[in-house]
Amino acid sequence: MKIIFHGAAQEVGKSCIEVQTGGKRYIMDAGIKFTKDGAEYPKFLDKVYELDGVFLSHAHLDHSGALPLLEHKNLKCPIYCTNLTWKIVNLLLEDNYHLEKLKHIHPAYVERDITKVKNDLRFVTYDKQYETHDGKVKFSYLNSGHIPGGASILMELEGKKLLYTADVNTEDTNLMVPSDIDQLQDIDILITENTYGDREHPSKKDEEAKFLDMVKETIKDGGSVLVPAFAVGRSQEIMILLEQLDEDVPIYLDGMARKVMTLVADSDDKYIDNRDAVERMMKRVKYIKKPTERDHIGKMKGVVIVTTSGMVQGGPVMTYMKHFVNREENRVIMTGYQANGTNGRYIMEERTFKEHHHMYKVHCDIQQVDFSAHYGQTSIRDMMRKINPEHLILQHGDVGALTESLDYAKENLKGKTYMPEIGEVLTFYEDE
Ligand SMILES: [Zn+2]
Known about the structure:
There is one protein chain. The chain has 13 helices and 23 strands. The chain is α/β, with parallel strands linked by helices. It has 2 domains: about 1-200 and about 375-425, Ribonuclease Z/Hydroxyacylglutathione hydrolase-like (Metallo-beta-lactamase, Chain A, 4-Layer Sandwich), CATH 3.60.15; about 205-370, Rossmann fold. The protein has a 7-stranded mixed beta sheet. A 7-stranded mixed beta sheet has the order 9-10-11-12-13-21-22, covered by helices on one side. The termini are close together. The structure holds zinc ion (ZN).
């Protein structure tokens, strides 16, 4: 078999791994990478005219954003994913399409292509074995502990076992049951993400306590709190934490964060932890009925607002920010990684942000907490050592993170290790 890395190779973004076996071609994930000039697609999609199947691990656009492009190119083939993953992907794709249009960035496909993806979906449930229609690959979707609906994918082909972790978390979070893929045995080829290969997360308990203390302190001192958060996973995680606030503190939930929260509360995904808390918070939070209310809420004292986008790159957060940043007693708490060139990064480093060529100065307090949905260095190493595969392939991380894991694996694992570049072809078991 051949495994070819078309994205997320020595980088994070545009995940797309091709598996060739017995004359068939499949891909695992079809993601995009956000750059300041718009979305970047895996280049190989320009050249491919036939595919036999797509295995979609989870809803984040760096794994799913290129699906409509496959339809645009008429690559009709089954797309395997969980039902909840598709519901979230559908929301994100529609939203992203309109956002690109608004920014006058031309998306690589037309809106109709998003609808066409639906016709090719084959829904899978966790922990059940399936087979591709050509009988070449047996596969199952396992809980990845990363975001609702997400999965690691275990495949059997040519009598070998291949495990693609995709984005994975074996550590406990408020929202997800942790993944137990580290218990799997007899894996021949392991492909794992390495986002945190070179570092540890701060203690989750400490970060949560810090977050809640900061919120309480701001409210007590007469200010309000704005939490820009990623729609999927992160916003729900924050909502579960905010349940600990006094009942009389108004909490607003806005934008894509609210839509995803509804999907998560309504789903029957068995690996969502604390669903009761999600449901209780759905009843407790206040919603915005019309966009003009945002101007009013942005000026209110003693409220908490959780909204998208997480990097302050568009969506309702922009309106709140404009009112929010003028009052010193207010506080903005960033809850995730802020990429270079985003407003989120400017706010953190230069206390400014931009919208429609207008520059705003930030006068309120700015803080950051680290709530990660990926496993940290120790857990990555534990997992690699426990599984101890014949071939270990490291991807979805920057070069520094990958190199540290590679060095560790060479010293502590029995098998061969790889850190492929984009376009690199790895060949396995062809002489057997
Ligand atoms: Zn992800």
